[in-house]
Amino acid sequence: MGPAPVSAASALPPEEPTPARRPGVGTVIRHLLGVGLMIAGLWATIELFLHRSAGQQIDETALAEVSNRLQRYTAQSSSLLNALPAISAGLAVAGILIVLFRRHRFAPALVGVLVAVGANGSAQLLKSTLVKPNLGIQDAVLNSLPSGHTTFAMAAGSALFLAAPRRWRPGLAILMCAFAVVTGVATVINGWHRPADVVAAIFLVSAWTILGMLVLRFLPAENRDESGTRFTGLLVIPLFTIFGLFLGFTALVTYLVSTYQHYPGAALLGSLCLIGAVGMLCTALIVCFLRGGLRAPVERAYTKVWTY
């Protein structure tokens, strides 16, 4: 008998996996501009509230108003503040483990962990290197900017945000914002940090998060993620932008009232509004960078571990 006929399909060479597509120059530039915008916000916070007498006065007035008006909430805020780092870290670790074992997103999880480590490390570096000038306004002359508690809580949310599939990220961005704002407000009410410390921490972690999102765009696992964020993103971005701008306007007005009219409670209200405004606007910007994701061919049933 002669050799069995060879089918046309079997005669073809094995199909090579399609290489992952890389983001364009415009995408990279947009992410870098986003990082630069967050760094500019951090620099403006340092310049206005650390080096200027008007900013130091607003921060000191807000802290004094906490003691006068919110002293009865200190015990509750202290308990919440002590629990928040453990809660945020526990949720982040549990979420990352779920992503690892169910979605096999090893590289995105690693990027998320590295971003969290970088954010916390840079916060401690800034806290130890920044020098607060003694302008005769604040009793404490040592720098406390940025807030370590706020950085840790928001960085934990950022790690989970980066490790998760694209479809989950708008919801996790809201969780990350909630971690930051609630922890920041608790530190202010408890008298551990001034409002500017919290604002600086939000800008710092947001910069690291956008940088992590840029790194993710070069990973094959991110290219294979075909889930979309169109509807959830369209909901989060306008709502957070509108409420963030409203809170920012409220903060500006109350700061002016506190400066020129010395109305009791205005500085504290403006500071809390500023924390909420920065948290919401940074979250809206982060969710904006989820748009325009790459679409790759459908993932095969079996994929090499090192391609994740």
UniProtKB/TrEMBL annotation:
Region Disordered: start-end pairs: 1-23
UniProt KW Magnesium keyword: no
Listed InterPro entries: PAP2/HPO (IPR000326), PAP2/HPO_sf (IPR036938)
Domain of life: Bacteria
Transmembrane residue ranges: 28-46, 80-101, 106-126, 146-164, 171-192, 198-219, 231-257, 263-290
SMART domains found in the cross-reference section: acidPPc (SM00014)
Domain Phosphatidic acid phosphatase type 2/haloperoxidase: 106-213
Regions of compositional bias (Low complexity) in chain numbering: 1-13
A UniProt-annotated Pfam family: PAP2
Alphabetical UniProt keywords: Membrane, Transmembrane, Transmembrane helix
Keyword Translocase attached: no
The protein's name: Phosphatidic acid phosphatase type 2/haloperoxidase domain-containing protein
